[in-house]
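Bug #77: duplicate submission created two jobs. Keeping one. Sequence:
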Amino acid sequence: MGCDGESANTMPEPLLNRMNVYEIAPPNRDGARRIAQSIYDEIRSAHAWGARFQPWATRRSMR
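Kept job's structure:
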């Protein structure tokens, strides 16, 4: 289950006791592009129609 730091602070204590809570910094611009490219690659390869699209996400599509 994902949540932001604020949500974790409002969760009931009995639930928090049963979880590991990790604080992860958001990715920088390059990291975000790598994540987006990875998702784009997975979607393209999972469907036959993916071959019709270019193998890289464009900067324009990542704005």
